[in-house]
Amino acid sequence: MPSTRITKRAVDDATPEARDFYLWDSELSGFGLKVTPSGTKTYLVQYRAGGRGMPTRRITIGRHGSPWTPEQARQEARRVLATVDLGDDPAARKADRRRELTVSELCDLYIAEGCTTKKPSTIRADQGRITWHIKPLLGKRKAGDITRGDIERLLRDVAAGKTASPHRSSKGGSRATGGKGAASQTVILLRAMFAFAMARALRSDNPAAGIKTFNVRKLERFLTAEEIGRLGKTLIAFEQEGANPYLIAAIRLLLLTGCRKSEILSLTWDCVDVAHFCLRLPDSKTGAKIVPLGRAALDILTKLQRRSGVQYVISGKGQHGQLVNIDRTWEKIRTAAGLPDVRLHDLRHSFASVGAANGSSLLVIGKILGHTQPTTTQRYAHLGHDPVLTAANQISAVIADALDQSTSQRNRRRKFRLRPNRPMSLADAPV
Fold first, then answer.
1. Strand order in the sheet with 41-48
2. What element of type H or E holds 22?
3. Which of 24, 26, 164, 172 is an S-S bond match for 32, by CB 3.0 to 4.6 Å?
4. What is the pLDDT of residues 22-56, one digit of tens each?
5. 67/84 Cα distance (integer angstroms)
6. Taking a C-beta distance cutoff of 8 angstroms, is the pair 197, 358 a contact?
């Protein structure tokens, strides 16, 4: 561990390494700087409460920058070390104070400091579960008092709809519906939160560990060709009645590309590669990916009017001209099309199901959808042609032709021979 006087130049020159490293001040014993691999620089104090032979403790002063400069941090370190000389143990006192956190305060601390590696969309989902389920049921309780029974009771209450809300959020987002899926995800979040609390010495155990959650079957709703036709007619009707053309285009693109809603609504024009028939997404649920575009999807993009000064393909009145909410209009469209149970995400399922039914391999479908695990695409396996049955039909047809050389018989049998189906798109649907 290097030792030098901690000055602004020394702090600026401290470059990140593969692991956390510490720079200790050569003049004030116990005053140091922690540098993480991400480049975060934090001032701290290390001391030994109770004299020689006692374990060392560390207490954080603050991150380098406003308001902490090296000299301000040095003054604070002197103050802390002076209280230690008088018999105080600031780290233990801070830990005791933290142990008195309420669940609501633990939630806020977890969102602020425990979600560094999570995607923004995941954090928003966590915040929703905290707001709708955790805080109403456990928020006022002390985090240190929560038991396994409390978590199991929350699981039952959320599953039964106790925290469900009949109203949407003030920003027009989705309402809390509760149910077994929401209950299971909320317990999984609590498990992560209490693991975070253990790492911060706020608890010695995790009351959510080992709790069995509901085995919720993933919803799989696939549109038939007739349903796609009804949807196509409804979209045209809404267009003719003056519906937002960008919103209509978003729904068509969801079905024609298999993309997730967030991927289409956040799509910017610089990600559209017309020359190579693809979308180049810098980020998604599974990271950066390339989405190949069929002719029908490309036609929608090339015909869509690009608004001056707006980078988003699906333009709206939101921040920076982005359309952020299409759920309400989708409910009207699906109702008018006679598809009340179809979610926007089911359009992605339908894209995959059409591919499987028309002979595309699961590997290819998974590549288009951006699946990182083959098991994720496996749900569409039962929709594809059975290769064994296809081979049996083809072989028997050839043998039958050899047995009966009659032209009329051969022509009649050809009508029943399996033929490859061409891929179906929304553009092909009857209107």
1. 3-4, 21-25, 31-35, 41-48, 56-63
2. strand 21-25
3. 24
4. 999 999 999 999 999 999 999 999 998 876 777 88
5. 24
6. no
